[in-house]
DNA sequence: CTTTTTGGTAGCATGTTGCAACCGTCGTGA
DNA sequence: TCACGACGGTTGCAACATGCTACCAAAAAG
């Protein structure tokens, strides 16, 4: 169980997000949840993580409101873990990590799993950071205002 | 020093990204780099991380091609850590985490640091996951093809 | 009713982190 | 030019987290 929080009191939203997710295993659990995993055993087989670690991570994610534990959809007495709206809102994070990985860690032609538009079966468009008026922004085009209300 | 890799051999780009970044400290280092930090001491003061941990993380990030060590811009004999193109490509990841944090971990009106368009001073548009033909996609509108060439 | 699967717990060895102390080099002011 | 503080680390150690294996109760399957 994670008791200590490291970044939770930060005024930086990135730090709070990082703290809420917990660790990398948790992020891969969320990825698997997006890919359709729901049951303890599915996550465990998919990730190869130790069961006690998985137990702890699932608990943290449920406590953090990213997943929720619901009765199994097939009518069995077991429970399933599904993404809450807050968890589904992590979609751009997962997509961003996926695209970064595709572009930087695979040789041309090297096979990898691929996220596609269900309707068309095509790859997704690369994420773009846009200004309020729709201009494409690079890192250098932005700056951080240290503190700001709302 | 991180010797063992956990996800590096995965065919999933998300896993490789996660492995390449290393841990949450590394991601916050990258965030600070986007915010203008360059020097060891800047990262250390900003993050409050132990110096040996910071040393190790900076080394990992340099080894992974996310940061590079360059001579200090002010002409001193010290070195600075700056984002490589690969590192700058993490921009959407940081922005996605920031927006998720803003939307889920701050009470309305609670102050937080804010990323703005330098030219206009306005907040950024929320990231959108788009299909190849420009439709806005929710998680349910997508599916993962387990393995695929290029 | 027996066996297998599921979803965990418990204990222990090992790895990683955080803290504090130390240290050589660099910059700076007198 | 020389002393002193800042910078950028390294080292050792204690505490904590992780991963592995064994175990276990409830549920499902047969």
UniProtKB/TrEMBL annotation, chains A, B:
Pfam name, any one: HxlR
Keyword NAD attached: no
A GO molecular-function descriptor: DNA binding
Start and end residues of each HTH hxlR-type domain: 12-109
UniProt-listed Gene3D superfamilies: Winged helix-like DNA-binding domain superfamily/Winged helix DNA-binding domain
Alphabetized InterPro entries for the sequence: HTH_HxlR, WH-like_DNA-bd_sf, WH_DNA-bd_sf
Keyword Lipid biosynthesis attached: no
Record key words, sorted: DNA-binding, Transcription, Transcription regulation
PANTHER family xrefs: TRANSCRIPTIONAL REGULATOR, MARR FAMILY, TRANSCRIPTIONAL REGULATORY PROTEIN
Protein name: Transcriptional regulator
Biological source species: Streptomyces inhibens
